[in-house]
Amino acid sequence: MKTPLRTILANIRNLQPESAERVLNETIEQQSKEYAELLFNLSKVQLARALDVSEKERKPLLKRAKKTIKRALKIETTGDCLALKARILGHQISITGNWKIKIQKALQVKDLLDRLEQIEITHEDYYLIRGMLLLSASSVPEFAQFLINWFCNSRIKALINASSYEKALQCLLKYKKSTMEANFFIMICYLKMHQRKQAEERHKLMKKMVAANLYEKELLVKARKELAKT
């Protein structure tokens, strides 16, 4: 007899991410493919682990989380799964210095957002992800432009041409949660737009928050460094 999904999720609630990952992996092997939600939660756990280790250690864990959410999407396409995959890709973009890879993954995020618009445009993370994508596209340096021409991909060119710090900020301000991540990227937008006072206000909000993981601690350090540049 199969264990109800709610019971399984309740059992992992108080476990450490590594233990929760092991339990979910074992459960998925035992249950039928109808448990796409288990895969979604496994990917969330794997992402949580990835965000609490150094960038060097983060890469393989993000790869694992992406592989898991792809399995879930093969079973069922949901807004939560699309948004989670887009967020994982966003974290992969942030830790690579290879602009070819950055551009490829940014286009994947754009495709996921287009699909999310079709099935659940009201998803709580939609504006956060789109704002981060627009900010990333607005920040492509001149030396990376040759990659865009090399790809000869009109969608990439259209994404960059349609992006701006103002549009990124508009999306991020529509995000309803006040999180460390959201405030950091809003702060960056203000700095890019030469609005230092507003940027400092966002930094103050960040400093009042308790970092939930190593990634959020990194954002605090990066925020301080970005403000020091201006």
List keywords for this structure.
230 residues, mainly alpha
Structural class: mainly alpha
* Sequence stretches where pLDDT stays below 50 over 5 or more residues: none
Spatial gap, N to C terminus: 62 Å
Shape: globular
Q: State the helix count.
A: 13
Largest sheet: none
Number of strands: 0
Order of helices and strands: HHHHHHHHHHHHH
Q: Tell me what portion of residues adopts beta-strand conformation.
A: under 5%
Put the structure in a nutshell.
The chain has 230 residues and is an all-alpha fold. It is built from 13 helices and no strands. The mean pLDDT is 88.
Walk me through this protein's architecture.
By secondary structure, the protein is an all-alpha fold. It has helices at 5-12, 17-30, 36-50, 55-75, 79-95, 99-120, 126-138, 145-151, 154-161, 165-174, 180-192, 196-208, 214-229. α5 (79-95) runs parallel beside α7 and α12 (196-208) runs antiparallel to α13.
Topology, pairings included?
Layout: H1 5-12, H2 17-30, H3 36-50, H4 55-75, H5 79-95, H6 99-120, H7 126-138, H8 145-151, H9 154-161, H10 165-174, H11 180-192, H12 196-208, H13 214-229
Helix pairs in contact: 2-3, 3-4, 3-5, 4-5, 5-6, 5-7, 6-7, 7-10, 10-11, 11-12, 11-13, 12-13
